[in-house]
Amino acid sequence: MKESLPDTVTKLVTSDGVPVFLVGTAHFSKESMNDVTRTIQEVKPSIVVVELCKSRSHILMLDEERLLREAENINYQVISHSIKRHGVFKGLVYILFLKVSAQTTKMLGMAPGGEFRVAVHEANQIQSPIFLGDRRIEVTIQRALSACSLWQKLKIFWQLLFFNESLTQEEVEKCKKKDILQELLEEMAGEFPEMTRVFLNERDRYLALSMQSAARSVKNLPVVDPSKTRSVVGVVGIGHVSGIAKVWNDVKFDELSELERIYPPSRASRIIKFSLKFTFAVGAGYLVYRILPLQKVGERIGHLKPHLKYFW
Q1: pTM for the structure as a whole
Q2: Containing H/E element for 235?
Q3: For 72-116, what is each residue's pLDDT tens digit?
Q4: CA 14 from chain center: how many Å?
Q5: What does the alpha-carbon distance between residue 272 and residue 153 come to, in Å, rounded to a whole number?
Q6: Residue 197 contacts by C-beta under 8 Å, 6 or more apart in sequence?
Q7: Cβ contacts of residue 44 below 8 Å, gap of 6+?
Q8: Which residues, at least 6 apart from 258, have a Cβ–Cβ distance to it below 8 Å?
Q9: 129 near 123, Cβ under 8 Å?
Q10: Distance in angstroms (rounded) separating the CA atoms of residues 119 and 39
């Protein structure tokens, strides 16, 4: 079967003999979406695993038209609803994510996560369950920050705070053919080696364990639908494929507790957290100022005060 699948597919086999077909995808790539469709239709797996966690599963609900429409219609009601639902910090982060995603969508001509939406659609077509196989993004970020020095943390946050880059057409086409995260982490490796370890290497191991866990579930199925195979299809960024294959025979399930552990913050981290909240509060005010008409800002601030408790 492997011979008839796209070149982006890597076949791995568990110790129990369950085949796992990894589809390596490039973000913002219609070719990758086609590869996912073709692989699931040909393999007809019992389970499909995607490189998402529960916190990032909202990406499955995005599409170009909706993303752009929501970004264009951001007003006080939208911001207030987001704050009430998620709290000030997460609510405003969601609004910022919406704006940034819309900008990227306009530049690239498609919303992020298309390969995952296609995977869910195709899995539903054959009535196979979807597994969210990635580590929680909150855990990954906190582990990455815990691994960085105070100076590295400050440099990262400074760069993120003032990041405002547009893409050239050449860069746009490049984004459609490569794993953006892998390329970014490779560029950061010299300056922030721990970020690469946490975001890439640790997640390679976590994803490998997720694929093997799904394969174990398939192996234990008493009956497999005759229209499907006792197999798994995994949809991951192409930058993870070689890492998953490399650790495939070495990972152990007892690693999960360590990979999911969040270390208590150091004194320096607590200072940074307080500073970031102060900076974010200032940035939030600037965001409201930029998004809402100037004459409405003053009267709206009072309405936001009851929700400020969620920030802390």
Answers
A1: 0.73
A2: strand 232-237
A3: 666 667 667 766 765 654 555 566 666 666 666 666 677 778 899
A4: 26
A5: 8
A6: 147
A7: 126, 128, 227, 228, 229
A8: none
A9: yes
A10: 10
- CA 252 vs. chain centroid, Å, equals 24
Spatial CA neighbour of 23 closest among 205, 37, 123, 219 = 37
What's the CA gap between 34 and 108, in Å, rounded?
A: 17
Residue reference for tokens 């694929």: 211
Report the interhelical angle of 88-108 vs 76-86 (nearest 10°): 120
Which residue shows structure tokens 């025979």?
249
Classify residue 46 by its DSSP letter: S
Which residues pair with residue 22 across a beta bridge? 10, 234
User: For residue 165, what are the contacts with CB-CB under 8 A and spacing of at least 6?
Assistant: none
Q: Give the separation between CA 237 and CA 115, rounded to whole angstroms.
A: 10
pLDDT at 48: 98
Alpha-carbon distance of 236 to 12, in angstroms, equals 14
What pLDDT digit, counting tens, does each position of 142-161 carry? 787 777 777 666 666 665 55
Report the alpha-carbon distance of residue 236 to residue 264 in Å, rounded: 30
Cα Rg, the chain, nearest whole Å: 21
Q: Supply the pLDDT for residue 300.
A: 45
- Looking only at the bridges linking them, the beta strands covering 130-132 and 9-13 are unpaired
**What tokens appear for 204 in the block?**
């390679």
